[in-house]
From TrEMBL:
Residues 26-222 form the ABC transmembrane type-1 domain. It comes from Tranquillimonas rosea. NCBIfam families: ABC_perm1. The chain crosses the membrane at residues 32-54, 61-85, 97-118, 156-181, 201-222. This is Tungstate transport system permease protein.
């Protein structure tokens, strides 16, 4: 227990002192995860809106597949991306393996189905509520999607938050395609795993504290935005 207390104390010291290695790892983690989240939302939200509003043969199967892909095993995604980006793979000429770009690709593949499936559910419920009004206004499919996305923007923030949470906590896929290389591809989750195995608990705990703080901070911001929206709606 004493050793654990000392580790906590040293971890807080690293955070408060702004340790250079610690800040580098945190900055890379945020850059990779935020980029993957933005790309996933850019693809997943329109796809979710299309599934919510369109009616076509096989739609049910597509929804089932999308929901199933939410549980993609990270190491399998990492392996598939690795095979495509390796020297013998079809995209090996890009030289992206063991770079932050490869990690962004892996995280994007993991969280796009989450964004698509969750946004589809949110927008489908909203579309059912507004369907008659949309028909009376003779809106095109594009106008309908735009209206739904705007009206559900605060709910969709939560969808984006779910995607970011999945991305920033990911370790399996990013360690396969990133290699956990110091000063290049080492992010918070891979560093925590490495430092714990080495017995360097202060750095691992410091990174864990920052990871939890980021998660709580993002949740607080989104909750604040939603509460502001509710107050404005009732004003």
């Amino acid at each position: 227990m004493q050793d654990f207390g000392e580790a906590i104390s040293l971890a807080l010291g690293l955070v408060l002192s702004g340790d250079a290695d610690l800040l580098e790892i945190v900055a890379l983690s945020l850059r990779v995860s935020l980029t993957a989240t933005v790309v996933s939302c850019a693809m997943g939200l329109p796809l979710g809106a299309l599934l919510a509003t369109a009616r076509f043969p096989g739609r049910g199967a597509v929804i089932v597949l999308t929901n199933a892909l939410m549980g993609l095993p990270p190491v399998v995604v990492g392996l598939v991306v690795y095979l495509h980006l390796s020297r013998a793979g079809p995209l090996g000429f890009l030289g992206l393996l063991y770079t932050p770009a490869a990690m962004i690709v892996a995280q994007t593949i993991l969280i796009t189905p989450i964004v698509t499936a969750l946004s589809r559910q949110v927008l489908e419920d909203l579309h059912s509520e507004y369907a008659e009004q949309f028909r009376s206004l003779c809106l095109t499919r594009l106008q309908t999607v735009q209206a739904l996305l705007w009206d559900a923007r605060y709910s969709l923030l939560t969808v984006g938050l779910a995607g970011f949470g999945r991305a920033v906590a990911e370790v399996g896929a990013v360690i396969v395609v990133g290699g956990n290389i110091d000063h290049l591809t080492r992010v918070m989750t891979t560093a925590i795993a490495l430092e714990t195995s080495k017995g360097d608990l202060p750095l691992a705990l410091a990174l864990g504290l920052i990871l939890m703080t980021i998660a709580l901070g993002v949740n607080a911001v989104v909750q604040g935005l939603r509460m502001t929206a509710v107050r404005q709606a009732h004003a």
